[in-house]
Amino acid sequence: MAVGKAIFGGAGRLALAALMGCGFGCEAQAGRVYTADDYARAESFMDYNVAPLVYHSVGRVVWLDDGRFWFRDVGPEGMAFTLVDPAKKTKSAAFDQAKVAAALNAAMRAGRLPIMVNEPISFAAVRLPIDDFALEDGDRTLVLTLAPGPVLVRCDLRGKVECKGMGDTHLGANWEAYDLSPDGKTAAFIRWNNLWARDVASGKLTQLTTDGVEDFGYATDNAGWTHSSKPIVEWSPDSKKIATFQLDQRKVGQMTLVATAVGHPAVETWRYPLAGDKDVATIEPVIIDVAAHKVVRLKMPPQMHRSSLCDDVSCSGGHGWDDVQWSEDSAQVALVSTARDHKQEWLRVADAANGEVREVLNERTATYFESGSFENGNGAVNWRYLARSNEAIWFSERDGWGQLYLYDATTGAMKNPITRGVGNVTEVLRVDQQARVIYFLAVGKEVGRDPYYAALYRVNFDGSGMRLLTPEDADHAVTFAPDGKAFADVASTPTMPEVAVVRDDEGQALMEVAREDITKLRATGWQPLTPITVKARDGKTDLFGFLFRPTNFDATKKYPVIDHVYPGPQTGSCGSRSFAAAHGDMQSLAELGFVVVCIDGMGTAGRSKSFHDALYGDLGDNTIPDQVAGIRQLAARYAWIDADRAGIYGHSGGGAAAAAGLLRAPEFFKVGVSESGNHDNRVYEDDWAEKWVGLLARNAGGTTNYDSQANQNYAKNLKGRLLLIHGTMDDNVPPNNTLLVVDALIRANKDFDLLMVPNVGHDYGAATPYVTRRRWDYFVRYLAGGVPLVDYAMKPYADQQAALAIVQAQ
After folding, report:
1. Fewer Cβ neighbours under 10 Å: the N or C end of the chain?
2. Consecutive H or E run containing 198
3. Would you say domain 370-445+454-492+495-526 falls under CATH 2.140.10.30?
4. Which helix (H) or strand (E) holds 416?
């Protein structure tokens, strides 16, 4: 005892404190030793463990031309394809899955399908999922589109089910690299920097362009972080023409990543424009007549590689050209062009036959223009060209909210505002030109509701008759029937599971489709999150978020608090307001003895224009003042929150914000985990940073308007524990972003922790379980003052993905 007292007395006490992980400035104490059971309980609340316990969700709704729709319905017995008939108010199996699976297997063995698989087809296990299907001949014939492929298959459902391939329909292993025409007869794809067409039935190949070369190819979208091999095209309604572009990157600077390997490493090099570069990617729009193999260049200068909705010409990553719309007669193409700084937009209309272009209207803003809301990676542009009446519907935030306006497409004059008042139009879902009615989703229009809940409205072209069609106080996902006479409405909240119904176009409920069943989920001890509201840094503005407590919560204890942060500006920390069994690993972290919060701070999307603009030009703010203010309020409200032990973590933009929390608010945040952070947007893709900060301006003294957002400039402020994590092959946020901070911390003589994960990208892939466990260990050791379990083995990544396969297929 005397020896022990001598060792741990005085300065030795600090040594013990460090060994026990108390953190800086804490008193020595016996830390909690975490067990395998503790970590296993935390892992039990990860999405791959809890999401499969939620049954009867209605995800993707696919309407058929006859007014019915189908969806994948997952229950305890597996996945079923359910067919809903709103007219008859019936719900039934779309087809006999066992018989169809047996017929498909027999067809493969007999060589009647142009595919081979290593195991029997199983729809329930999603071994060969159906991408789409149609019923013909009074439901006697089933036409399937199977993936990978696409493989088109016709099955006779009468008597013994028999299936056969529809011609030479296999388009190759990477079927995502094709874009099918509306009639399904032609597939467009890229080969050797040119656009080609393949006749689906015969397999005949036709080269549509001939002058594409490296870095000046057709329909490509590989500028910056996007590496899509699928062509960016917009087919005309008659399937005879393609609107696309030639992407010019010939003068764009390069990015290089080097893999870790024994011997000579693989090197990945591609064009990656940076904020402030003189030369960035541009596009030259063209129209291609598929049958004539004729290319018509639109008579307009090269346009910026930008979108009015997001920071790429294809906001969903290789799935269409967002700012292009064809007229119904396939004679004209409307397109919106975006300025490099995203402050000006031009709506133009082109003649598809001769390439003549005329300008309809343009709008300039002081900060940045958006044609809709792309929060959480959803949404679409809200402008519409109405060739039939020679009008245009235009989206603008000019009055402080996202509104719709009606324009004359000949004169460019505004006819009238369509929507007014508080709240944002988020997505135009249907335009009925004959009735002159618009159906749209909007947020923030209903007083007393979460301002992020989406609801469906209808309004007349002249702005009259606006009406709410989905009255429940919930977040609504809506999918219209092709004729617009009915729509599927899936409503939920962060704490209320989904209820799916069908409504007519007046909002009258016709039938209930499904209710999510979370009985099995609740049996695990799962508990819903707690919605929270706090005031922003100004003490006036309401901010919204989530709070997670351990399932064995004890109100007499003091819990360290961890802030999950994402500063936007294109989204926020908390994500969707629809129901989910898991929100990242927030509940899992809570199970390890923390209170975990997320707060959507000022400068994030979904609220007013002034709210969104609050941080324009200064990404270095990272909403940190709002995070601090919100957590302090929660600690004053709840005695069990210990704001003196605050941690912060995030990924990508959240990784930059987490580091900023330690560097900008070092007295408040004691521990941070920063993953894949874009710590200095001067070494990140040009179009994202230039939208939210503006164009790079270099001052006479050598400073720039980007200096305040660069985390390395604040390295000297570090006081707490910081773990930096980055994948060495991250082609979204290149790893030099983190290494800039590492270099500055070394020069500032600061202690920190670094984990570079070899050969993984932005989201870590197979290394995800390891990174997750290291994140948990870091907070356990340095924020809770505990002793983490050594080398806890989380479920392997492949098993995680397999567990989520059916859920993701929905």
Report:
1. N
2. strand 194-199
3. yes
4. strand 414-417
